[in-house]
Design a protein that fits this description.
Two copies of one chain form a homodimer.
Chain A: H1 6-20, E1 23-25, E2 37-39, H2 41-59, E3 65-68, H3 77-82, H4 84-87, E4 89-94, E5 101-103, E6 131-134, E7 138-140, E8 150-152, H5 158-163, H6 165-171, E9 178-187, E10 202-212, H7 215-222, H8 243-260, E11 268-272, E12 284-292, E13 295-306, H9 308-317, E14 323-325, E15 330-332, E16 335-342, H10 343-354, E17 355-361, E18 367-373, E19 384-388, H11 394-407, E20 413-415, H12 421-431, E21 435-439, E22 453-458, E23 464-468, H13 469-480
Parallel strand pairs in A: 3-9, 19-20, 19-21
Antiparallel strand pairs in A: 1-2, 4-5, 4-6, 7-8, 9-10, 10-16, 11-12, 12-13, 13-16, 14-15, 17-18, 21-22, 22-23
Helix pairs in contact in A: 2-10
Chain lengths: 481, 481
Amino acid sequence: MAEPKTNELMEKIVSLCKRRGFIFQSSEIYGGINGFWDYGPLGAELKRNVRDHWWRAQTQYREDVVGLDASIIMHPKIWEASGHTTTFSDPMVDCKTCKGRFRADQLDSTPCPVKPSKMVCECDGEKTEPRAFNLMFKTYVGPIETVDNVAFLRPETAQAIFAQFQNVNACARQKVPFGICQIGKAFRNEINPRNYTFRSREFEQMEIEFFIRPDEVVQKIAGNVATYADGMDTSAPQANWGWELWHRHWVEERLKWYESIGLGRDTLELYWQEKKELAHYAKACVDIQYKFPFGTQELEGIAARGDFDLTQHQKHSGKSMEYFDEEAKAKYVPHVIEPSAGVDRLVLALLCNAYTEDTVPDEKGKPETRVVMKFHPRIAPIKVGVFPLLKNKPDLVKKAKEVRDLLRPHMTVFYDEAGAIGRRYRRQDEAGTPFGVTIDFDTLGEKPELLDTVTLRDRDTCKQDRVKISDLVPLLLQKVR
Amino acid sequence: MAEPKTNELMEKIVSLCKRRGFIFQSSEIYGGINGFWDYGPLGAELKRNVRDHWWRAQTQYREDVVGLDASIIMHPKIWEASGHTTTFSDPMVDCKTCKGRFRADQLDSTPCPVKPSKMVCECDGEKTEPRAFNLMFKTYVGPIETVDNVAFLRPETAQAIFAQFQNVNACARQKVPFGICQIGKAFRNEINPRNYTFRSREFEQMEIEFFIRPDEVVQKIAGNVATYADGMDTSAPQANWGWELWHRHWVEERLKWYESIGLGRDTLELYWQEKKELAHYAKACVDIQYKFPFGTQELEGIAARGDFDLTQHQKHSGKSMEYFDEEAKAKYVPHVIEPSAGVDRLVLALLCNAYTEDTVPDEKGKPETRVVMKFHPRIAPIKVGVFPLLKNKPDLVKKAKEVRDLLRPHMTVFYDEAGAIGRRYRRQDEAGTPFGVTIDFDTLGEKPELLDTVTLRDRDTCKQDRVKISDLVPLLLQKVR
């Protein structure tokens, strides 16, 4: 089958997301609100699986990362220290004719208020000089709206980690190098939210701040600082790693993680920022990009940020951010490697990556086109569908419900008895459910040798195997975990 | 041991929460921000376990509830429809002397700005008349701060569920009665945040809107509407249940759930709101309260809200909220039972409930006082500590790390080799880790019959059993799931 065209493909994905309950427009019944999205039943489970898998990869499978769950509204001085108050802005211009406000760098791709069907300011009116527009959402905390009470919705989760570095360090029984990770919402008042959920105003981040020794401390302790060479194994941390090796380590770790949820390396592109693109304090930054139908775009940035953030907070708070390193017998402000990923972007990438149209035989062997969401079983919203072959046979229904109850403590199960079995399979194909269990007359012993067996259908191959009910739990757990 | 006095107990809990990394003040290095809290490594895991357990209880173990994950900022008309714009306010007065602003109904328990050590407006100055102060945090979406661009941080998660009722209904393959659940942050600009994390400005909710048939439809289909009698079994839904039975069902379900995470019925109190306390549209409301050291306070409210919310949104959006009931051959706006719980309050209740001081023999048999957090294993942040008896014996350390790697895919593990074994136990007691596994010389075969066995210590009894390493995973999984 020919690859559908890009826009057409994106339209199909968006349509399926609404129809099957992955993603809805926020406040749709009131005409929506630009840049805000809701996750429906399947989307909420998908997102939850992504978060869980990421959290466990850091805090459970690693010994050197602990979690944090900080508030969205923080003290405004946090954003002075981080630089967001002064520099987190986009350049904007106003059109003196249509009164529209546009990002100066996106003037040619923004709908004109006068002719909204045109993706450009059509009135050609005179524009004001660009002015900086801060992207943080502002609010007031407490009963009085004064300058003293201004607060912001965090534009990133990272700063809470820096602000709480000493509290976590005091309790976590960790030694540098170690990391703190966090998942949570962040907000940016984007002028032009776009590309579906990709650039939205409310979004979720998964961030790790991994604190390491400054290179000079590594040099002192290990006698040298390892340098990276192509093909080097960066999976097992070594005492002589400086920022460069730790940075490579995290790039590799994160690629492995994406692979573990079904985004193979062929679906991703690494973009190494050039020196001139880097922030003045950054030593390196790699973007992990996914090839979306609307273009290759960033899922995650992995930056070597030096000691910039902790030093800024030390300066602005007057509180020491130094760490005493027993082995080095020295105090220092740790340096940081920051793998920072967007949950909503990743969910969108997973939806795009899963969306497949193929041709399979229907129940009568006639080829038919189906839509199937080929999620990795680990992140699939529903792990297994359970189907009695026929709805009107009480014994089949009873047995099917027993199987459902057997599986349910271990994974998400969808029980469905309505309609032809082929249609029930197709529904689960669209939901991305990797396995289907069908209870038929052989299960009940019509063929005595098949008593208490079921068919186990594979979503991608449509192949069906006969499996003992008693084998189902371990067999499926092995595939979905 | 005598029960510690209330304030003293609360102080001990707050101190432990900071010291062990359950809860930190948000933005502490900048002096904090009143009403906002962060969860440290242990607190983040505890909260995560609570959320997971709740979510799975609704969406995985029940067949009639699906999830939703909606945005925090929604269209402002949502709050007009719900009534929050006009009525979600507290009465406030200003003191003309000290310029403090106080809740009119809490004048006698609010710190005076002039003498903050006094929990009352001390200056005794003349007060203004009470005025309504809306508790929603306000912000502006988009680049221009105009009335048209005002938006609010949601003061509750419930309204998104109502607003998305038809979208979910269209995709979820459910029939009324069914529910939609959501976990997420909500914000209330409380004048006087207090009682630690209990009344904060940013908090998390776990809400279910359970949609049921109006009583007259039940009557039509089932021929009667069941009425509640004391001691009735409300666990298995019946066709003739009206709102009263469904309400009882959910009260019972929620109590069972609290019990399943260690809050037994003796720790809770049910408060049935009196008719005069109910909102005009509400038919009944029960508060599930916990006996906090600072007083008995609400963890969850379970309200029978009729069709108020859906009808309001139907009116304000002009979109139908009617459901077509195939069995009744009728259209109606479903009625609602709403179990609405606070995550942070529950976490605080679990911390208070877990905090225990007892006397146990130390390693030399001498009685010593210990602090132990007796969390239910299901919600304990760390499930098992793994300890080599001695740090300086490579064989013990190697074996202990093997045990850690064996357990890690299944649960959170804390590996600790530093310090005397007794001190390591105590540290995990304070963290609330229910099990401790110690690898000693017998594990290595010093007594050949004990080869590949470990001691398994129970946090609460301090009892140690000898267990085969190969039995550990199933044995522990059975206890922590």
